[in-house]
Amino acid sequence: MITLAEKFLNISMTHNGENGHKGYDLIDGATHQIKVYNITDTRSIYKMGVSSYSQTVTPVSTVLGKEPESIKIEGPLCKVSDVYDTSGNVKTNGFLSYLAPYRNLNTIYNVFLPCSIVEATSINVPESVGTWMVDLFKIKRNLQKRELILYELTLIEWCGDLPTNGA
Amino acid sequence: MTNITFNIFKEMKDTTTGKSTWGNVIASIGPINAEDISVTTTSEKLVTKESNKPKIIPFGVKGQGGRVLSFVGTIQNRSMTYQVVADTYFDVLQKNIDDELGYAVSVTSGNDKLPEFGPPSARWRVEQFNWDRAARQMGQWRFNMTLGYVWDPTLNEIKLYANNASYDIPDNVKFRALIGLNNGGYNHPDAIIINSPKITTSILQLNKATFTCANQTFNKDDIIHIYCQTDPDNAIFFGIINEAPKSSNFVTTYNCIEIGELLNRVMCAKFGSGLFKPRVKIPNPYKGKNLNLRSFVALIMNYYNASMIYNYDPKWGNDMTYKWGEQPYIPYDPSVSAPVYIPAQVLSGMSIYKALTRLLEDQCGMYIWFDNNDGTLQYGFIRNQITIDPAKDIILMSEPTWNNTEDYVPNNVLLYNNEGNYVVYPNPPINGTYISYQYNSSMNNIMMDSMVKKIHNDLQTDRSTFKVRFPAGVVKFKDGDVFTGIGDSTTDPIMPYRDDTDYDPLTKSSDTVWQIKDMTITSTYTEVVVGPSYFSIFDIFRNTLVPVKEAPIPTELVEKYTSEVPISTQAMGSVDHVSVV
Predict the structure, then answer these.
(1) Beta-carbon pairs below 8 A across chains A and B
(2) Does the predicted model carry a pTM greater than 0.90?
(3) ipTM over 0.90 threshold
(4) Is beta strand B486-488 parallel, antiparallel or unpaired with respect to B397-401?
C-alpha cells in the first residue's frame, strides 16, 4: 500500500500577486491510497556516444548526466460497478467520491493527473518513498476478473524542492 | 441492465477560429459487447539531463496522443453479420465531405459498465479503426478502435495551470500576408494565407521575415504586411520582398526585409534639372543656433521626402524618449559627462538609412524602429510598454542566454584615455582584482573620474539576458518594447521579476526593466530575448570604450621643421550642398 499526497503546481502568471511573474503556486490535492501488485524502479545514465567506424579505434562514450529516476507501479484501482450508477452519474459514496473536491472533471481516467506532484510514503514499498511527478497514468481491465479496473502509474523523480505556497 | 450504446458525432469546423465542435449526433450504434478497454494519459514535459539532478519543466499532456483509449468489442447479437451502419461511421474521416473532418464517439448509455469512457459528455475522436475477423471465430466481426480524447479548453481538467488562466490558444495559428502600403488587416479580402512564417526582429537590425506559399502569389519588390489571426488589426511585420522567390517541390519561399530598407535605396543628395549634388552637410550651429535632434532627423528625412519611392512615407521621426528629441545634445548621463552638442553631419554619398543610423545609433547610441502598421520612423532607447495578460500570455519556458558581461566583477577599475593618461577607482585602489578600459577619445581628468566610477558601478549591475518562450499567437510584442512586469521563478537560474518603470534608461540601474532585444515569431511559438533596459556605460559608448590588457603607450605630438618643401595635403572634401533649417 502506498499513500500519495497529491499537489498541483498551479502555474500562474501572477505569482506572489505580481502580474507577469510565472511561478508555481502549490495547492494541495487529494490523498490516494493505492494497492500495489508490481513496482519497478529504474535509474539510468544519459550519455552521448560516437561510433568508432573502425576496428582499431574504440568508440567514445561521454556520460553527460542522469535520466530522472522513474518508478512504475501497477495494481488494482477499483471495481467497475463502484464508479457510475445506472444513470451514468458518479456514484455517491463510490470510489470517486474522495476526489470530488479536487477534480474539475471527476472521472476514472482523472484519478491521477499528469504533471501533478505526489509525495509518496509507504511502510512496505520503500522504493516509492519520495517526491515524484506523474508521468503516465493508465487504466485497464483485468481480463480474468473483468469486474476489476487496474491501474499503471509511472512517476518520475521531481528534482529540486517543492515551492512553498506563495514562494 | 442498460446496454452499452455508442453515439457517433461528426466534426464541424469553424472556418475563422479553426476550432472543432462535436455536437452533431449522426448515428447510434449498439448494443455493444466490450471485450477490452484501456485509457492512457501521458504527460508532456521537457527534461534536461545534463547534470546529477535533471531539470523538469512540465507542460501538461501531449497534443497528439496525450490521452488515448483502446477499445475492442463486438456488436451484440449481430457480430456474425456485416453492419452497414456501423461500418459507415466507424471511420476516421467523414464520407461525402470535401474537408478532412472526422468522427467522435461517446458512450451514451451503459456508462456504468464502461466508466473508462467517462461521462456521456466526453468525446473521443476515432483515430484508428479496424475490423478484425478470424476464421477460428467463424468470421465474427470484432472491431478495434484507437480513440483520442477531445479536450475541453474551458474545463482546466489537468489542473496544471491556475484557474484564472484560459490558455485557449487557437488550434492552428494562421498567418496572412496582404500586398500594399495600407494596413488592411488580417480579415482583408485580399489577404493571402501563408505557411511556415518566421519573423525575426532585432533592435540593432532591420526586421526580416520568411514564409512559403503554394503558388507564386507574390513578386520581388512587393510591399506586404503580415498578420496573425490572434491580432487581426495590427501587422506583425511590414516590409518588402527583397529577394526573387525561390520555388522547390511546388512550394515558393519568400524572403522579406523591413520597410525601412527603402530608405537605403534613396541617397542624401540634392536633385534638380541637370543637378546632382551627393555631398551634403547639415551644419551645426546654423545661424548661431544649435539644432535639436528632432531637427537633424527631419532634415535627413527631407531628402527622402523629395524622392519618395513606392509612396512610402515614414514621416519625420517620432522621438520615443519624449526628451532627447528637443535637446541639442548627444544623449548623456549628467552624473558622468558634460553635455556635448550634436556635431554637424556630413552626409557624403550616404543613403537616408545610413545617415539615420550614423546619427541616431552610432553617435546618440539609440535604436531605430519602423511602425509595423504604417512604417512611421521611431527612435529612442525604449519603445512601448507591454503588460502581460496573465490569462493568455503564459511563459512556456525561459533560460539564460550568453551575454557579454565580464567574467568577474573587479575590485578596481583602471581607465585610460587615448593619450595614455589614466585614473583608477576606487582611489586608492584596494587589494584585489582589476579590469582596465581604454576610452578612444580625448577626455579631461574630471570626466575620466566620473566615467571610471560609472564603469565600476555598471560592472556590478546584472546585465544577464534571458530567452523567454510564449505559445503561438502571442504576437503583441515588438523589439525594443519593455515589459511592465515579467519574471520566472520556475526555472534555475531564476529570471528575476522586474516591474519598475524605467524612467530614464541612461541613469539609475535600479529601476531597470526587461527590454526585448530580439524576437522570433513562428506558427508554433514566439520567443523573445530580454535584457536590461538600463543603458550602461558600455551600451552608450559601445566600441569607443574597450577593455584592454596592457596600458597604451603615451604619445606626444612634436613638430619638426626641415629644409624640404612640405608636400601639400588636400583639405577636407568640399561640399556641394548645405542643408538649411
Answers:
(1) 207
(2) no
(3) yes
(4) unpaired
